[in-house]
Structures are given as structure tokens and as C-alpha cells.
């Protein structure tokens, strides 16, 4: 395992960056984005994708009344889109027996879907 470059600049910490980070994690686990260091998409990990979506939903509840309109809108829009994509991925996995990817079956991931 290589040691990370200590001179890599970090983006300024912000709520928008946090939302983007959680969203990207969910998208990677939905099989929409390649994992870091990989050129191709990996099979979805629906339970882990669900976990990141649920984290964002929890963040919505815990920050209610404390966000700017833009922050609130970015978080809510991300959750709505990710939930839609989760449903699509769950349906696809149900029709493709190998489509659930690591971490569980589509049925177990769908059972927790709201």
C-alpha cells in the first residue's frame, strides 16, 4: 500500500463539500461512478449505498433550521436523486441475479427501502 502524498492540497471544508463527498460515496456504491483507482464501474453494493443515503437523511434531520437555503436544497436534492437511483438499482439487481454486488442481495437492500 502506498503512502499518500502529504503535499496534496485539500479543498476548503464546507457543508457543500461534505454533501458532495457523501453523495459520491453513495453513487460509487450504486455502481454509477468508478471506485478510486479503477477505470470501470464495479457492481453495486446496495446496503452500503443505502447507508450513505441514510447518513444524508440523518444529516437533514440534525441540521434542520441551521442550513442556508442553498445548503438545504443541495442536501435534499441529493437525497431525492439518490433514493430514485437506489430504487432503479434495486429493481435492476432483482432482475439480474448477480446484480446486487458485494454486501448483500437486492432483496435485503430493498427491504429497508422507504
Give a verbal description of the structure:
The protein is 57% helix and 0% strand. The chain has 114 residues and is mainly α. The chain has one domain (16-30, 44-111). The radius of gyration is 16 Å and the shape is flat.
Tell me, briefly, the overall form.
flat
The total of helices stands at 4
**Elements, N to C (H/E):** HHHH
- Averaging pLDDT over every residue, what do you get? 84
C-alpha-based Rg, rounded: 16 Å
What assembly state would you assign to the polypeptide chains in this entry? single chain
Biggest sheet, open or closed, and with what strands and sense? none
Please state the structural category.
mainly alpha
Instruction: Let me know the number of strands.
Output: 0
Summed up, the domain count is: 1
In terms of per-residue confidence, which ranges show pLDDT below 50 for 5 or more consecutive residues? 101-114
Strand content: under 5%
Termini Cα gap: 39 Å
Helix content: 55-70%
Short description:
With 114 residues, this protein is mainly alpha-helical. The chain is built from 4 helices and no strands.
What is this structure's SSE topology?
Layout lengths: L14 H15 L16 H17 L6 H27 L10 H6 L3
Helix pairs in contact: 1-2, 1-3, 2-3
Structure characteristics:
mainly alpha, flat, 0% strand
Amino acid at each position: 500500500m502506498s503512502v499518500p502524498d502529504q503535499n496534496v492540497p485539500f479543498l476548503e471544508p464546507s457543508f457543500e463539500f461534505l454533501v458532495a463527498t457523501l453523495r459520491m460515496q453513495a453513487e460509487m456504491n450504486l455502481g454509477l461512478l468508478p471506485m478510486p483507482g479503477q477505470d470501470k464501474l464495479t457492481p453495486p453494493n446496495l446496503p452500503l449505498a443505502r447507508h450513505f443515503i441514510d447518513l444524508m437523511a440523518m444529516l437533514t434531520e440534525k441540521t434542520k433550521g441551521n442550513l442556508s437555503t442553498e445548503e438545504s436544497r443541495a442536501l435534499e436534492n441529493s437525497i431525492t436523486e439518490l433514493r430514485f437511483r437506489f430504487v432503479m438499482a434495486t429493481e435492476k439487481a432483482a432482475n439480474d441475479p448477480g446484480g446486487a454486488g458485494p454486501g448483500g442481495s437486492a432483496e435485503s437492500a430493498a427491504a429497508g427501502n422507504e
